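worker-03 picked up job from queue 'complexes'. Input manifest follows; two sequence lines, order preserved.
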Amino acid sequence: MKKGTLFAIAALIAAAMAGPATAATAKRVKLTGEIIDSWCYITEIMYAEGSAHHQCALWCAAGGVPVGILGEDGQVYMVLKLGQDDTSVANPAILRIQSHRVTVDGSVYERDGIKYIVVNKVVDDSGIVNLTHDEYGIQPFGK
Amino acid sequence: MKYALQIAFMAISVLAWSNMARAAEEWGLPEEKITRFEAKVVDVLCELSGDCPKACGGGNRQLGLLDGKGKLILPLKNNVIFAGTTDELIGFCGKQVIADGLLTTNRGYTVFALQFVKEVPNGKWQRANRFLPKWAKQNGVAENSPKAERWFENDPRVKALVEKDGKLGLGLKVDEEFLAKQ
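worker-03 finished. Artifact:
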């Protein structure tokens, strides 16, 4: 076997070993939904949608709690990346669109009952359109 | 002699306490289960996609707990109000840990609240509240100050957004009118 072929095989093996053995397959999607705080929404420790929960959603995002997109299909998609940003922990760009209704282009992964999304681009941002404060007040402290 | 024995007893007590198995506290979450398990700390995006920066992204990525059966458990909360787990786990990137906390299942999702963590096999239990001293240091206040205790109300990133868009995110005028009715 030629040296070049051996190097190519070694490089392929090294590349395969660099990533996790269980890497999942991504599905390209266009997803519309509301940017939410995943913890408050999933646990229902308080009402966690729209304007009523906006301030708390900012707090949780700044605290590094994963931000999700509550899709029109009722599913939560955990945001692992936004565009070329190198952070998904308290990402200022995500804070700026917290509670907004957005349409994104991205790649969805599913693992052990949780959906994750890598957002390539926010293609539409309608702002906060889910006006819930008249019914639920300001969550969680009322002010 | 008596004094030496007392000191020895105190030293043993301190050692025993520091290595004692910490027990998670109940929070009253839906289908809450106090849970302790061994897992590897992983960068979730790396685990899913093979996009793997050095050191789990150095604290800039959401981290997961990969248990012995290959199940990826997503920790959403630490032990600090309104805060997540990256600061609690980043020091253990790629390492085996014992995670102690609460599994909660609701709306069809099972997620984890991390309360204590220690490295396998002989690490010391650490309460999952490292977020707060880090935040306090970054913001130039004492860890035990009232400002740090209410970090979320004093966070400059959040304050700037609330001052611009209001607590409801709909503008200051909407806030003013709404709060006047309360």
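worker-03 released lock.
Confidence is low (pLDDT under 50) at residues 11-18 of chain A.
Residues 25-136 of chain A form one domain.
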